[in-house]
Design brief:
Largest sheet of chain B: none
Strand content of chain A: under 5%
Chains: A mainly alpha, B mainly alpha, C mainly alpha
Oligomer: heterotrimer
Helix content of chain B: over 70%
Radius of gyration of chain B: 22 Å
Radius of gyration of chain A: 18 Å
Strand content of chain B: under 5%
Largest interface: B-C, 28 and 36 residues
Number of strands of chain B: 0
Structural class of chain A: mainly alpha
Number of strands of chain A: 0
Chain lengths: ~230, ~55, ~240
């Protein structure tokens, strides 16, 4: 039997999950619509005064991205868990961490990436400057993968539990706070004319740490939930 | 009555009631809960054991 | 003679030991509380800047420090439970969680009460208070996850993993929050005069140990109940004196 290289395995899992996500386009779209709606709620709640909205913009968009990610995390493992595929994956000789990483990447591509692409449009609603928008997009680009990855740990721990979605958010949101702080901090810095490089470097560092550690931790969490 | 004015006028009482009393009350509640937990657990285990003996 | 480190790792032997240990921590704790509060109110002098209000510190700081310390201890037990597969370690982690959460709560409340006379608002989004709030969320998450899983072994291990992930995150969270906003000046508020500092330090130490011993006593008592519950089907439980109704 031909032994697949780890990279081949990774690409295989990514492609599979993306194909599955495309078949259930509704899930992907509803998360996006949720994101747009939440962002629109804030001006309705706090008033249309542009100065205030401009200051809030980065925070609002980031919080909305957090919430939207939480919503979509439920389906990271549940479909495979319910039809037995997950069990097969865990019995397979290939590295579970690589499989998990593949699922995380695919999840990000189907939930985080659309948010990144949608953000500029929403940012303009808040009268953000082009420079601020650019930095915001970069922070979302670096940060949303981390959300998917930390969220995967939560999804693995809460696999099959009743009340899973809310519990998952409860567990994962505190862990995502640094990403939120660095992401919005970068936009705040650029608006104040300061350097946003330190914030972005920190985001990058968190991303690298997440890529290195979360797949393995998630694999352990899956083993705990499935035995 | 304005709490701020009262607070400035009676700082020690504020400190005593507001923080120490709160802590002591929390501790008291915790102790009561722990003791009750022990009582109910003992009771339940006793029931289970007695039910098991009847078989 | 080799020391059997794992002797008290079994719930059976620890149950008795814990029971004997409780009064050794409960009574000193009560005494230290009385002494500490006496010192806090009558011995420690009035501060030049903050007047009498700073005395809240003698309950706020110990509970804040201990809430963080207990989280690490809890995570430590969780790690032991995962690595060595000892049931008792997981039980200890579950026993610590409620106490840790309550300490965080007290520290948040007393922090707010201290904040009003100090900064004029009941709540302030500075590094310390915000980190304490997040710590409360981490504790509650641990408790919630454990409570949501019916099967005890999975519950123990899942919550343990969460505790470990949380503890790794705590420095990151703290650093990011500190960077985000800081109002606390340094680790302790500066007071005027060195001789006064010593009395305050002593009071602080006394109160910290008082709270620490209290927590140990409560946790030991709670773990005994957990042991009773988990081991209820075993023989040694039926033999216990307290089981004779």
């Amino acid at each position: 039997m031909k032994k697949s290289g780890l990279l081949d395995l990774l690409l295989l899992v990514i492609r599979r999950d993306l194909v599955l996500a495309m078949r259930r386009r509704a899930d992907v779209l509803t998360t996006l619509i949720f994101f747009v709606m939440v962002v629109s709620l804030f001006p309705m709640g706090v008033g249309p005064e542009m100065d205030m909205l401009r200051k809030m913009a980065a925070g609002v968009l980031w919080v909305a991205a957090l919430l939207a990610s939480m919503l979509s995390l439920g389906r990271l493992f549940s479909a495979d868990y319910l039809d037995g595929t997950l069990e097969q994956m865990m019995l397979a000789p290939q590295s579970l961490s690589v499989l998990v990483l593949g699922k995380m990447v695919a999840h990000w591509m189907s939930s985080g990436l659309p948010l990144v692409l949608m953000a500029p449009v929403l940012g303009l609603q808040f009268d953000m400057s082009i420079k601020a928008l650019g930095v915001l997009m970069v922070t979302l680009l670096l940060g949303t993968p981390v959300l998917s990855m930390i969220g995967a740990i939560g999804a693995a721990l809460t696999l099959g539990l009743r009340g899973g979605g809310v519990l998952l958010s409860l567990l994962v949101l505190p862990l995502c706070i640094p990403v939120l702080i660095f992401g919005t901090g970068a936009v705040g810095a650029v608006t104040a004319g300061l350097s946003f490089a330190p914030h972005l470097s920190l985001l990058g560092a968190v991303l690298i740490l997440a890529v290195v550690f979360t797949p393995w931790v998630t694999a352990q969490a899956l083993r705990i939930s499935m035995e | 009555m304005n709490i701020l004015v009262w607070m400035k006028a009676n700082p020690l009482t504020y400190v005593w009631i507001g923080s120490y009393m709160f802590a002591l009350i929390v501790f008291a509640i915790e102790i009561v809960l722990v003791v009750r937990k022990r009582k109910t657990t003992l009771h339940q285990v006793r029931l289970m054991r007695d039910a098991g003996d009847e078989e | 003679m080799t020391i059997n480190w794992f002797k008290y790792a079994s719930p059976t032997s620890f149950y008795g030991l814990a029971g004997k240990m409780i009064p050794w921590f409960a009574i000193p704790s009560a005494i230290l509380f009385v002494v500490g509060m006496y010192m806090g109110f009558f011995v420690a002098p009035v501060d030049a800047q903050q007047g009498e209000f700073y005395r809240i510190m003698f309950i706020h700081v110990p509970t804040a420090i201990l809430s963080m310390f207990f989280y690490l201890v809890m995570a430590g037990y969780a790690a032991l439970g995962l690595i060595f597969n000892t049931r008792l370690s997981a039980m200890m982690a579950s026993a610590i969680a409620p106490t840790g959460a309550l300490f965080t709560l007290i520290s948040l409340w007393t922090g707010a009460l201290w904040g009003k006379p100090m900064w004029g608002t009941w709540w302030i989004w500075d590094a310390r208070m915000t980190s304490q709030l997040i710590l409360l969320f981490l504790y509650l998450g641990f408790i919630a996850l454990h409570a949501s899983i019916d099967e005890p072994r999975r519950a123990d291990r899942a919550a343990a993993l969460l505790a470990i992930v949380g503890s790794v995150n705590v420095p990151i969270i703290y650093f990011s929050v500190k960077w985000w906003n800081t109002l606390h000046q340094g680790s302790t508020i500066k007071f005027s005069g060195t001789s006064m500092q010593i009395t305050m330090q002593h009071t602080l130490l006394t109160m910290t140990i008082a709270c620490w011993f209290y927590a140990i006593a409560v946790v030991l008592s709670r773990v005994r109940s957990i042991i009773l519950e988990r081991e209820r089907k075993t023989d040694w439980i039926s033999e216990l004196p307290e089981m004779r109704s």
